[in-house]
Design brief:
The chain is of the alpha/beta class. The protein has helices spanning about 25-30, 35-45, 75-95, 115-130, 145-155, 175-190, 205-215, 235-245, 250-260, 270-280, 300-315, 340-350, 370-395, 410-430, 435-460, 465-475, 480-490, and strands at about 10, 15-20, 50, 55-60, 110, 135-140, 160-165, 195-200, 220, 290-295, 330-335, 355-360, 400-405, 495, 505. About 50% of the residues lie in helices and about 15% in strands.
Length: about 500
C-alpha cells in the first residue's frame, strides 16, 4: 500500500486534513472531470470577470481578505478604507468614546439580519465569542413573538445595545420589521435610536440613505459584488463578531491562506476540488446524494447551517448557465456529532443510500486540560471514528475533515474552504452559484400576498363575503384567501359567521 494515499489530503505545516478514503470515489471519474475549466473560471472570477451573469455582477468576496487581488486600485482602496472605518468604529465603541444618546457606554449587540446576513456572524460568534466581548442577540426572522422575546430578555440593557442592521439591498422586509420593533422598544425606554444604530448595506441603498439622514452611529458598505451568503468575512459578519470578542484579523488571515491552498490547480492537491469532486461523483452529477454534516464540537454546531445555506442556495437551480433545465442541487442536513449521529446515522448506514456524510473533527479539543476533559475528548473522537467505520462497513460514502482547532484562523479557513468548494462544484455543474432566482420569486410572491390581504379587506368594506366570492373578486387562489382571512381573524381584524371555509366573512 502506498502511504499516504492520494485520497488523504493533508497540509504539512498545519494539521488540516481531508480524508476521502471512505468516500467510494471513482478516481478515474474524478480525473475525467473538467478541472481546467473549473480552475480557469475561478481564476477569471477572482480577476474581476462578471461571474454572476444573470445579475451582471462581479463576485468579489475573495478580495475582502486580500484587497491587493482586487481588479482595480479603486476597489482595493475602497476595501481598505472600509476596514479602517470599521476598526476606528470598533475602537470607539469598546473604549466608551461613543455611546447612546444619554452618554451611557454600550454593553450588548443586537444583530438584525436574515439568511446569509445572519448565518455568517452567528457561526463566528457561536464558535469564537468570548466572555471579554459583548453579548450578542440575533433578530433573524420576522416573527414578532421571537423579536419580543429577545428584546424583553434584554430589558433595560437595550438602552446600551449597539444595533447592527444588515441588509444588502437596504429594503429587505424581515430586517425592516425587526428594526421597527426595536426602534419602538428603544422609544419605550426613553432612548433615541439613531446613536445606537449601525447600517451595513450597499452604498446609496434605502437603508444607507436612512442612516445618513437620521445620523446613525455609522453606515458601512456591503458592495453589490458580495453575495449575502458569502458576506461572513465582510462588515456584515465581522463587526458583530469583533464586538463579541473575535479576532477578525486572524479570521481574514486564515481565509487568505486557505484561498492560497485552494487555488492549487492540481485537483488531487486542492481540498476544495477534492471535496467538490467527491460530492459531484457521489451524486452522479445530479445531486442524487445529499450530504449530512456532523461537526464533532459544540462550538461548530452553527457550521452545519452555514454549509447548508451556501450549498443549497448556490447550487439549487432550475436552469444551468446555458438556459437548459437541469433542476440541480445538493441537499444538506445536520447539526453536530455525537448528538445527531444518534438521530441521523441509523438511516445513512442502514436505510436509503442517498446521503454522504461529512464528519468534521477538531484535532485540539482539551477543555480545561484535566484528565476528565481529555477523556471526554478521546471519547468524542471515538464516536467520530466509530461513525466513520460503521458507514464504510456498509459502503456508504463518508468524508472526514480535520481542522486544527476552533480558533479565529481556523474558522476563516473553514469559511474559505466551503466557499471555494461551492464555486468549483458550480463550475462542474455549469451553474451560476451567485444568483438566487428562487429566493427572489418567494419575495415577490410574499409582496403579492401582502397586497392581496389589503385588497381582501377593501372588498369587505363594501359587504361581507364568502371565501370563494372574495377570491373571484380579487382574481386570487381561494386557498390563499383562506390563509389570509384566518390570519386577519386571529389578529382581530375580521370575523366569520360560521365555518372559516364556508362561512360569511366581515370586517370587525
Amino acid at each position: 500500500m502506498n502511504w499516504p494515499p492520494r485520497l488523504l489530503l493533508y497540509r504539512d505545516h498545519l494539521p488540516w486534513c481531508l480524508d476521502a478514503t471512505g468516500a467510494r470515489l471513482d478516481e478515474a471519474a474524478f480525473d475525467a472531470l473538467d478541472w481546467p475549466r473549473a480552475f480557469a473560471e475561478m481564476a477569471a472570477l477572482e480577476g474581476g470577470a462578471v461571474a454572476n451573469a444573470s445579475e451582471n455582477r462581479q463576485v468579489g468576496h475573495y478580495w475582502l481578505r486580500a484587497p491587493e487581488r482586487a481588479p482595480t486600485v479603486g476597489l482595493a482602496a475602497a476595501i481598505g478604507d472600509a476596514n479602517l472605518a470599521m476598526r476606528e468604529l470598533l475602537d470607539k465603541i469598546r473604549s466608551g468614546a461613543v455611546g447612546n444618546d444619554a452618554g451611557e457606554p454600550f454593553t450588548d449587540v443586537v444583530h438584525i439580519g436574515i439568511g446569509g446576513s445572519a448565518l455568517g456572524p452567528q457561526m463566528l460568534v457561536g464558535a469564537l465569542g468570548t466572555t471579554d466581548g459583548f453579548p450578542v442577540h440575533f433578530l433573524d426572522n420576522a416573527d414578532p413573538d421571537g423579536i419580543h422575546s429577545t428584546l424583553a430578555a434584554l430589558g433595560v440593557r437595550l438602552r446600551t445595545a449597539v444595533i447592527v442592521v444588515v441588509s444588502k439591498s437596504g429594503s429587505t422586509p424581515e430586517p425592516g420589521h425587526a428594526l421597527n420593533l426595536t426602534r419602538a422598544a428603544l422609544a419605550a425606554l426613553g432612548v433615541a435610536a439613531a446613536p445606537n444604530l449601525i447600517a451595513v448595506t450597499t452604498p446609496d441603498s434605502p437603508l444607507d440613505r436612512t442612516a445618513a439622514a437620521e445620523g446613525w452611529l455609522a453606515h458601512l458598505p456591503l458592495w453589490s459584488w458580495v453575495g449575502g451568503r458569502c458576506s461572513a468575512l465582510s462588515a456584515a459578519g465581522l463587526i458583530t463578531a469583533e464586538l463579541a470578542g473575535v479576532d477578525s484579523t486572524a479570521v481574514l488571515a486564515g481565509a487568505r491562506d486557505m484561498d492560497a491552498w485552494t487555488r492549487e490547480t492540481h485537483p488531487w492537491l486542492n481540498p476544495a476540488a477534492l471535496f467538490a469532486g467527491v460530492a459531484w461523483i457521489a451524486g452522479h452529477g445530479r445531486g442524487d446524494r445529499g450530504m449530512v454534516v456532523l461537526p464533532y464540537a459544540d462550538r461548530l454546531a452553527p457550521l452545519s447551517a452555514f454549509i447548508q445555506a451556501l450549498f443549497m442556495e448556490s447550487l439549487g437551480k432550475h436552469q444551468d448557465r446555458d438556459g437548459q433545465v437541469v433542476e440541480q442541487g445538493l441537499t444538506v442536513l445536520g447539526h453536530k456529532g455525537s448528538t445527531d449521529q444518534h438521530a441521523l446515522v441509523q438511516q445513512i448506514r442502514d436505510g436509503r443510500d442517498d446521503f454522504m456524510a461529512l464528519l468534521v473533527q477538531v484535532l485540539d479539543l482539551r477543555g480545561d486540560g484535566t484528565p476528565a476533559a481529555l477523556a471526554a475528548g478521546d471519547q468524542l473522537q471515538g464516536f467520530l471514528l466509530g461513525t466513520r467505520r460503521a458507514l464504510t462497513e456498509r459502503q456508504r460514502a463518508v468524508l472526514v475533515l480535520t481542522v486544527p482547532s476552533v480558533d479565529a484562523y481556523a474558522m476563516g479557513g473553514l469559511v474559505a474552504l466551503i466557499e471555494r468548494t461551492v464555486g468549483l462544484y458550480a463550475s462542474l455543474a455549469n451553474l451560476n452559484a451567485y444568483d438566487q432566482p428562487g429566493v427572489e420569486a418567494g419575495k415577490r410572491a410574499a409582496d403579492a400576498l401582502l397586497d392581496l390581504s389589503s385588497r381582501i379587506r377593501g372588498k369587505l368594506v363594501a359587504a361581507p363575503a364568502h371565501v370563494e366570492t372574495l377570491a373571484a373578486a380579487c382574481g386570487a387562489d381561494p386557498t390563499d384567501v383562506l390563509y389570509l382571512l384566518r390570519r386577519l381573524s386571529l389578529t382581530g381584524r375580521v370575523i366569520v359567521d360560521g365555518s372559516p371555509v364556508t362561512g360569511l366573512w366581515r370586517l370587525r
